[in-house]
Design goal:
10 helices, alpha+beta, binds zinc ion
């Protein structure tokens, strides 16, 4: 349990980093030298290191632009599907015949945005504004712009970053048909009813909809531990909650706004100086997937019944669901994975370098949810299992970047492996960042899914000696390429301590060679994994060894598909086959041709 908590905390911290850059104006120097930078260093090391181990074909220069981590997380596909639906409703796609420009070149599918693939920015426009959310006859809320000053502060609630406080209300407050006598004030710029914010996951639309009933004045990563105050002023007929000078996550800035609850059921949101610019604003009944997109400053629309929200964003983003749908409209449903590059930075999960999403899984015994099937939404009739997003091809004009691509491709299956420990308890001690990578302290045999190759020096002394080489024997078991009897035991180091160099390392730290430490070796056998997860079905005799995947390049008028860009992706596609074969010890193959 200790580890579980540690990982959870750390996963949230990663998302704080991500939101920090998403909110965009400035980042603290501390963040620049934090875990993000270490990941970049280790990727560069992995690419540049020379050793007798098989080195992948293709250029081996460090990837200088790899400054941000992998953003793969549990539930990622659902988050993006929610955004897709919101974007579709807030700006109906143009009906231009943009797909007429789509074509396959050198087995790369080139898709041309016609206003339907790239989502435009929606700048925050509520500075010094005030909004009243008044209950309407449909059971939802109508928005009315007002002219209201901010209230003065009340009693400080002592809310820390990621935290919340319960405040009793002297009047019953009706919200989406349920009456509450207590409200939870959350650090993230929102009030919730019935439950505090979980403190986990991206502070975005998916959380806004799926979480508890919520009124969000500025749902974002906010950092009250670093400054400002959150106060409550509870009067007989209204309660005012003021975020005063609270910094955005990872930013040196200040944000001042309030939410007031009125005894009759109306809410008011009032804004002072807002230096963070990206957030979700609105009201949600919770436990829903549906939302009515709003233009709050224009008081539109009236008469909505459920969640009503506006999502403010400073950057343009790729709608991955629309990309997938467009691809499958013109290609057969034979691809287990699609790999998407763009001609300019359009990452929909800001603050990350690349990520993978699972949209379908039937494989049992690998720790990945089975029965998952969101393929219909993604335009596939059931063949698609995984979507990899690699962002701008311009990062890869000179380098293949297979430490990253191999990593994301591997996320189709990896790495969520639990095991039964010596006492029979379920353990996730092999897992690291966001519980979908190997732990820094696991001897992962230099897996591309993180962890390290760890040498046992004897007497409780260990040293990381290599990173990011390929798919380990355990990886290959999970990928359906090895039978249980072909998987030697692995080990992790329990209670690691005495690090040299003398820095702090966690389960979620990025791979890094040359780190020595002490601790207790714990061996984990494949039998312990099977005891926790059940057997892998299908097993290596029955699982496909050939991964059918497709490479997609999305271009638009701002950044056209130049010959350089097309050639780079054609080269990457060409090199990845030999790389994958070598990285799986000859057990796996890919076919990325387009019929
Ligand atoms: Zn990853």
């Amino acid at each position: 349990m200790r580890q579980e908590h540690g990982e959870r905390r750390d996963s949230r911290r990663f998302l704080v980093d991500a939101a920090g850059s998403m909110n965009g104006v400035s980042r603290t120097p501390a963040l620049k030298n934090g875990p993000v930078r270490r990941f970049a260093l280790s990727l560069a090391l992995g690419a540049a290191a020379c050793s007798p181990s098989p080195s992948p074909p293709g250029p081996a220069a460090p990837l200088a632009t790899a400054a941000l981590p992998c953003g793969t997380e549990v539930q990622g596909a659902r988050n993006l599907a929610v955004l897709h639906r919101y974007w579709q409703q807030s700006s109906p796609p143009s009906t231009s015949a943009s797909s007429a420009l789509d074509r396959d070149i050198d087995n790369v599918a080139l898709l041309q945005d016609g206003g339907d693939l790239v989502v435009r920015r929606n700048p925050f426009d509520l500075d010094a504004a005030a909004l009243r959310f008044a209950p309407n006859r449909g059971g939802g809320y109508d928005v009315v712009p007002l002219s209201l000053p901010l209230d003065s502060g009340g009693t400080p609630l002592g809310i820390v970053t990621g935290g919340s406080a319960a405040v009793g209300l002297p009047f019953p407050f009706p919200f989406f048909g349920t009456t509450f006598s207590q409200v939870f004030v959350n650090a993230d710029g929102s009030l919730t009813f019935g439950a505090p914010d979980s403190g986990e996951g991206e502070k975005g639309l998916a959380l806004f909809l799926a979480g508890p009933p919520r009124a969000a004045a500025f749902l974002a990563e906010l950092d009250p531990s670093r400054g400002g105050t959150i106060t409550a002023q509870v009067l007989a007929d209204r309660a005012v909650f003021l975020w005063s000078g609270v910094p955005g996550g990872g930013q040196i800035n200040h944000n001042t706004f309030e939410i007031a609850l009125h005894a009759g059921g109306a809410l008011e949101m009032v804004y002072g100086e807002m230096q963070s610019r990206e957030a979700v604003v609105g009201v949600s009944p919770g436990s829903t997937r549906d939302v009515t997109p709003a233009d709050l400053s224009a008081a539109r629309p009236a008469g909505s019944t459920g969640a009503l929200a506006e999502r403010f964003s400073e950057t343009e983003k790729l709608d991955l669901v629309s990309v997938s749908r467009r691809f499958f409209a013109r290609h057969p449903d034979i691809f287990e994975q699609i790999v998407i590059y763009t001609t300019r930075p359009l990452n929909p999960v800001a603050g990350t370098l690349a990520f993978e999403l699972n949209v379908k899984n039937d494989v049992q015994g690998i720790g990945l949810e089975t029965g998952l099937d969101e393929t219909g939404q993604w335009g596939s009739a059931g063949g698609l299992a995984s979507v990899v997003f690699m962002d701008s091809i311009d990062q890869y004009l000179e380098v293949d970047g297979f430490e990253i691509l191999g990593h994301e491709v591997g996320h189709r299956w990896l790495a969520r492996v639990r095991f039964r420990d010596a006492g029979g308890a379920l353990s996730n001690a092999l897992l690291g960042r966001a519980l979908v990578h190997w732990s820094f302290f696991m001897n992962s045999d230099a897996s591309v899914l993180e962890g390290n190759r760890i040498a046992d020096r004897g007497g409780g002394h260990f040293e990381t000696v290599d990173i990011t080489r390929g798919y380990s024997a355990l990886d290959q078991y999970v990928m359906g390429m090895r039978l249980p009897e072909e998987v030697p035991p692995v080990f992790y180091v329990d209670e690691p301590d005495n690090f040299r160099p003398n820095r702090s390392f966690k389960f979620s730290s990025a791979p890094e060679a040359g780190i020595s430490f002490t601790g207790t070796r714990r061996d984990v056998r494949i039998e312990d994994v099977i005891a926790a997860l059940g057997p892998r079905v299908p097993d290596a005799l029955h699982a496909p060894r050939l991964l059918r995947h497709a490479f997609i390049l999305v271009a638009d008028d701002v950044a056209p598909a130049t010959a350089d860009r097309l050639q780079a992706l054609a080269r990457i596609r060409d090199h990845f086959g030999p790389y994958y074969s070598e990285a799986t010890g000859g057990r796996g193959a890919v076919d990325s041709t387009l019929p």
